[in-house]
């Protein structure tokens, strides 16, 4: 009987998908045991991670290396997205006025259409 051991932890579903694809390409048998529990609405995920990657004992070393590579790539890509989000974006109406405001009139009082507001 094969003994399954933990080769790593994945932090979210997207990371799990990347690890799954990498291990399949390397032809390493695996299971991903999710810690997501609907009864507790993901309460333990910040402490334990999203799930554990289990592989047969003889594949632990190679799986650990692949999982670390995936995590490093995932963090690099996450950092690239953060650079883009850090740029200043402005909200403008179609005529070019009202830039920098989410309100169409540049930030004046919001009218509800009720008589007391008119």
Q: What tags apply to this protein structure?
A:
118 residues; alpha+beta; Alpha-Beta Plaits; 3-stranded antiparallel β-sheet; 3 helices
What does this protein structure show overall?
This protein has 118 residues and is an alpha+beta fold. It has a domain at 4-84: Alpha-Beta Plaits (2-Layer Sandwich). It is built from 3 helices and 3 strands; from the N terminus they run βαβαβα. It has helices spanning 13-25, 45-48, 60-85, and strands at residues 4-10, 31-34, 51-56. The chain has a 3-stranded antiparallel beta sheet. Helix 1 packs across helix 3 (60-85). The termini are far apart. Mean pLDDT is 75; it is low at 85-93 and 99-103.
Summarize the structure.
The chain is α+β, with helices and mostly antiparallel strands. It is built from three helices and three strands, in the order E-H-E-H-E-H. It has a domain at 4-84: Alpha-Beta Plaits (2-Layer Sandwich), CATH 3.30.70.
Helix content: 25-40%
| CA distance, first residue to last residue | 78 Å
What best-fitting shape do the alpha-carbon axes yield?
Answer: flat
**What is the C-level CATH assignment of the domain at 4-84?**
Alpha Beta
Structural class: alpha+beta
From the alpha-carbon coordinates, what is the Rg to the nearest angstrom?
A: 24 Å
SSE string, helix = H, strand = E? EHEHEH
* Uncertain stretches of 5 or more adjacent residues: 85-93, 99-103
User: Averaging pLDDT over every residue, what do you get?
Assistant: 75
- The strand order across the widest sheet is 1-3-2
In the CATH hierarchy, the architecture of the domain at 4-84 is 2-Layer Sandwich
- Report the major sheet: 3 strands, antiparallel
Into which percentage range does the β-strand content fall?
5-15%
**CATH T-level fold name of the domain at 4-84:** Alpha-Beta Plaits
β-strand number: 3
The tally of helices reads: 3
């Amino acid at each position: 009987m094969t003994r399954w051991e933990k080769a790593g932890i994945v932090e979210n579903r997207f990371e799990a998908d990347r690890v799954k694809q990498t291990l399949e390409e390397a032809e390493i048998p695996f299971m991903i045991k999710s810690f997501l529990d609907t009864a507790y609405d993901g309460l333990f995920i910040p402490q334990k991670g999203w799930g554990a990657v289990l592989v047969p004992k003889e594949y632990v070393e190679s799986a650990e290396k692949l999982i670390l590579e995936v995590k490093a790539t995932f963090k690099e890509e996450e950092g690239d997205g953060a650079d883009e989000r850090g740029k200043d974006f402005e909200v403008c109406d179609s005529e070019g006025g009202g830039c920098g405001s989410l309100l169409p009139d540049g930030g004046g009082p919001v009218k509800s259409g009720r008589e007391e507001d008119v």
